[in-house]
Amino acid sequence: MLRLHSPIRDYAWGSTTLLAALQGREPSGAPEAEMWLGAHPAAPSEVETGTGERVTLDRLIAQGPERHLGEAARFGRLPYLMKLLAAGRPLSIQAHPTLEQAREGFAAEEAAGTPLDAPERNYKDDNHKPEMVVALTPFSALCGFRRPEESQLTFERIAQVMTEYADGNATEVALAARHLAVLLADGDVTGAFAEILDPESIWSRGGTAELVEALTGMQDLILHDDAIVTALEAAEHFPDDPGVLVTLLLNRVDLMPGQAVHLPAGNVHAYLHGLGVEIMAASDNVLRGGLTPKHVDVAELTRIVTFDPLPVPYTNPEPVGQGTVRYRPPFEEFALTQLTAEGADAPAPAVLHGPAIAVGTKGTAEVCCGDERTTLAPGEAVFLSAEQTAAAPFEVRSGDGENTTVYVASMPAD
């Protein structure tokens, strides 16, 4: 087992307290959004070698891909990226491409000579990015489209409120809201989505801020429409961003610790707040759709988004042994195992497949694989090669006699 030293990304939406609280340290005072646990070249973890030196995990794997990755070597990389994600305010509304779309989009931007760090760049690599998040604290997100008739009712309410706010006059904002309701009455979610994000629309020319001002403080309306409550939460941070209107089209999901959702390609989503373990295919491809100062390519986003209203894709944990449950989303790049040792005499075992990354999230954990063992405090992590997981089972014991929890990313068994 190789101990990981992993970078924390300081994105503006990051919480200033959640990761520090998990790790039992004083907050740095700066946003701490994501701890990246993996070999993604944008921010790879470092491992300690036998000489006491450090090398990035991607370089280590490149020195012996068959030994470190096993059958996962067919992906040409460690196939997943694991994160501790700490959202203090909403992330950008976003969606991810399919593998084919990612390959085509990356090739086209490479051929066009668009620099990888260009603000208008959509595709940072040629991989897709299906993902899953498991809540460690109460965790809220937006995930997929609501049924159009539900969103229609919300926009009809908004049109009425905006008319009343203008003393009965049909303002441009009221008319625009009513038009969105008409589109949704026809089931045209695509049209409503594109109209909201059109840079020439009223929503990009002051209409969003006008709407937010009118809705703020209208308790009667807010009490009757949870979608408006969510929109106003987003507006606290992005009062003039059309993404506030996009939230009205989406399902809100509130997870309790241990609950999870998975997000396939094309699913429009945004995390709102909370701490979670996130795992995804090793990619950084994000098409944004609001609640961000970054580039929004409406045409490309609309091309990759799945507009069909679907049930929220919960991932139900499956018990697989004492203190051990597995989250198995329908993706071939990863599975996630939660191991909870309840006291010193109740170890939690797991059979892992392929390369694995284990991170502590509660208590002091003693982790064992074969003859190797080490301790993990919350936020500490280790890498296990495919060679190692094939040779011996993995086990978590309590290192301090209290309940302790470790999450392990690995490959699916099937």
Automatic annotation (TrEMBL):
PROSITE patterns: PMI_I_1. Its cofactor is Zn(2+). Pfam families: PMI_typeI_cat (PF20511). Belongs to the mannose-6-phosphate isomerase type 1 family. It comes from the Bacteria. It catalyses: D-mannose 6-phosphate = D-fructose 6-phosphate. Keywords: Isomerase, Metal-binding, Zinc. CDD domains: cupin_PMI_type_I_N. One of its GO terms (molecular function) is mannose-6-phosphate isomerase activity. This is mannose-6-phosphate isomerase. Its EC number is 5.3.1.8. Residues 1-146 form the Phosphomannose isomerase type I catalytic domain. The keyword Zinc applies.
